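pinning this so it doesn't scroll away 📌
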Amino acid sequence: MKPQAPGFNYAEANAFLNKRWTAVMSEMNDSRVPKDLRPKEHTRTATVGGWGKSKLHLQPSVNFLRDLSEAIQNGKAKKAGRK
């Protein structure tokens, strides 16, 4: 048995989601609905999925903290030179 959160009814949520899924699937496959108005099915692509890992990676030579530290030090040095 699942633990119940106060004010949350799993059976109602399950019924609602199943009902919506069935309705959307029916509408998506209904040839009477114009194609541009039908729900779209989002699928995982080779490069990026909806919740998958992004293919964007930092270059190995990029060191954010070092670069940030250098920028802060350079900013402090420039301010000190103005005084």
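📌 and the second one:
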Amino acid sequence: MPLIAAQQIMASRMVLEGDRTVAFVARGFDINASTLGGRVNRHRIASAQQERRPVSGPERVRIREAERENAELR
């Protein structure tokens, strides 16, 4: 793995697992803040999709009823 890719992975982890901002970590690694921010956001989105649980039958019915009610109110 190239050094730059390893640095970006390490920098991403520092942002995700710590209390440091993207800008602060990017300056420390001499990485563009937008690049690091994009990488961190992609990781957050991927993690959220993996954690999403399927909707149960009764919950699906409740959601459908709420959507119908919203449509009627519009």
